[in-house]
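Researcher: Re-running this chain for the archive, since the previous output was lost when a drive failed. Same request as before.
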Amino acid sequence: MHLELISLLVHNYDEAIAFFVDVLQFELIEDSPSLTNDGRPKRWVVVRPPYQVTGFLLAQADGESQTRGVGDQAAGRVGFFLRVDDFHQSYEKMKAHGVEFLTDPRQESYGWVAVFRDIAGNKWDLLGNA
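Model: Regenerated structure tokens:
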């Protein structure tokens, strides 16, 4: 058993794909036409970190309630945790791409950490080994 997908509300498919693929270096697994439950067109967009099983279904917000949820998937808390092999290289590359970091890098007992926002506004921990 494994967790396959986590749905992530976004404002725009293409902007979200660019962020996850170009900035975070995720793989674009699928970008296919699909339909909403009531028959309107949408896309099925899946991204995931390289060599991983669990990915994100990028779900473009549909309607007022979903639009309000974009960027607040964890109610203002850090809701996602991205561990990288080279913390400092990843941090510098992300900053160069304009990623908004809410904290400076700091070393904790579990390694390096800095909090950033994704394209939708959700908070993430960027994590790396000590």
